[in-house]
Amino acid sequence: MDFSEITNQSRQAVKEILEAAKLRKGAIFVVGCSSSEILGDQIGTATNLDSANAVYDGIIPVCRENGILVAAQCCEHLNRALVVERETMEKYGFEQVNAIPQPNHAGGAFATVCYERFDDPVLVEDIGQKAEAGIDIGGTMIGMHMHSVVVPLRISLRKIGAAPIICARHRPKYVGGQRAIYDESLM
């Protein structure tokens, strides 16, 4: 597996998503990542820290450069809790929970890498559907963390490594019915 290619694919994907989603500084970007699926294995069967680090190296610097806050989703063994920076938790009023993600037991490789590499990581049970955009690498089911109207994004990539990706952004709800006029920039 060429991990530098995984980094490049991850970087390209997040750049395209951020451009399409038009996120403002301080917005939350959620990442669900199966390191097993990246390697071509079934989710949860071949946890790999090298592929998780490669995804981290592609996504996190781009988000930081753009002032975007990242929430890294854990696996179902931690009920899809999220690793965030303490600053994010405090800004949004999320509640910290007590668990440390582990690559092979509970949390998954990407959440473990984020917990190790973030500046001041904490685990929160949920983010109250505050994510404005995100990427699901390998079928990790990030939708529960997104605002209530989620729009799929088609980008130039369909996979990172062997893992299929689904990209999404939030848009405000339409209200007012057939007489309403909508702001095209929010669609």
From TrEMBL:
Gene3D superfamilies associated with the record: Hypothetical protein TT1679
Superkingdom classification of source: Bacteria
SUPFAM superfamilies: TTHA0583/YokD-like
Matches recorded under InterPro entries: Antibiotic_NAT-like (IPR028345), DUF436 (IPR006340)
HAMAP family noted in UniProt: UPF0340
Record-stated family: Belongs to the UPF0340 family.
NCBIfam families: TIGR01440 family protein
Protein name: UPF0340 protein bpr_I0730
